[in-house]
Predict the structure.
Amino acid sequence: MLRRLQFFGFYGLFWLSFFIICKIYFIIFTAKNLVSANIIDVFNIFIHGLIMDLSATAYLMVVPGVLLAISIAANVKVIVSIIRIYTIVFLVIISLLVVADAELYNFWGFRLDVTPLIYLKTPKEVLASISVWMLITQVIIAIVLITGSILSYKKLFFRYNQLSKAYFLYSPLMLFCVALLVIPIRGGFGIAPMNVGKVYFSNNNYLNHAAINLFWNVGFSLSEINPNENSYHYFNEPQQTNLVTPLLSGNTASDSIVLKTTKPNVIILVLESFSAKVIGSMGGMQNVTPNINKLSNEGILFTNFYASGDRSDKGLVAILSGYPAQPSTSIIKFAGKSQSLPKLSISLKNNGYNSAFYYGGDIDFANMRSYLLNSVFDKIVSKDDFPSSTYNSKWGAHDHVVFERFYNDICSQKQPFFDVLFTLSSHEPFEVPNHAIPGDDSSSKLMNAINYTDSCVGNFVAKAKLQPWWQNTVIVLVADHGHPDPGNSPNHVPEKFKIPMLWIGGAINSTGKVGKYASQIDIASTLLHQMNLSSNAFSFSKNIFSNEPEFAFYAFNNGFGYLSPSAGVVFDCDFNKVLLNVGNITSTDALEKGKAYLQNIYKDLNGRK
């Protein structure tokens, strides 16, 4: 009986040690985020993360504990073999997750959870973001970690391959030990069960993220995958209504009309990963987007404009449906819910417009196909519509190829038209046919790819200006989301979400800059009001050219930012704490409005079938 208890105890120590090794690996692989930390901070990662490591360990001990309890009445060799297989399976799974998590963190800025599962339906596109050398390196690391952990388990537990018989009282004692696991599983004796916020200890979010146990985090997020549960309930109904009502569109008329006609052709160019940090006309780097910098003087540039979320699927829904991003899920994953969203393409089709959507990549990525089909575009052009000779090695057709097809089709298209082009060349791994910006680091590659797409935009606009349809056309250039680079911006900060929006075209009757705080979700209402069409269906979208409240809301992995001219906050929902007061102004009002707005998003999301 004693040997079984020893086995059970050492089994827990084995998993706890494994999780600590995994944490060390994560810190080493993401060490660039430690620039402002010291040795005490690193030590605190392990101390504060221990409670979650113990919880994860306890979860893994339950099944072996039960098996050991029944070993008195079963073949001991079989029980030990089952535990060995169980352990190896989880070692393989967790090791693969650990390697993927560290790599993804450098791209996304948050620990692996259920979010990436949406992309696993299209593994080719996921792998397209990873270079061959990077993939080989990660595979080698995973093999080393898996092999080392399995060999260690076999060596440490070899002496327990044979267990002697035990008295019948052993089973209740063993089951009692298993029952005690509920204490570390819950994170102690407190009222609140284990949650991510329990390991948060610093104002540096990377340190908090490093303290998280990956296995626990993935398991928890899988258990919370139900989109119909509102995890963001901060106010009762009257309080929430009073706070959020002024922030929702009142269908307010425009103070100024910037279009020469109410029925222009509309083109939306969605620019992959274009951050304001690289747009010279927005105060960013001067040499990356010379064409957009020049075009900014010919149209209307929105200088306090923000992405709604941090992924392409969230950006498309925000732009085309005026629907805000969600921190812990994406409505595009749920075809039934996204089908019920309002869509610019449908609003314009109902007013006599022809429509088309162009993307050089695979529209099955991130469940885009169902959303685009529900948008009732007359034509959808994607990767398979281009010859393979025009592809880069990963994603699909180069941007200049897509723009050429786009231009040729428009020239023969019946007016009025609503066309959308979504670029892809400035997505990792940034394979483009030009090398205008030297450098082999990720930031230089990104800027070079953006420079290439900027040249494609410039060529397209130059040719479009020569066509008769130009004089009756408005082109909206807007990014799908920002990017950590250049500058390695933390995942939550406003500068990562600040993006360009520029209106140009022959249908524009004025030029200049608009400094109002706004985001992608406001495009729909603003555009429709300029066309004298109703925007009632787009309840979250506000008319920028009106006197409606001025603010921008963005969501990151389980947190949000709320920005306005007077104050702004960045709030972590796991930590339940303000991470940043924008403008050094502590504003309870901004925090309450942001919480009420987030609560309203999930109220709406849950109400959709």
Observations:
- The first strand starts at residue 265 and ends at 271.
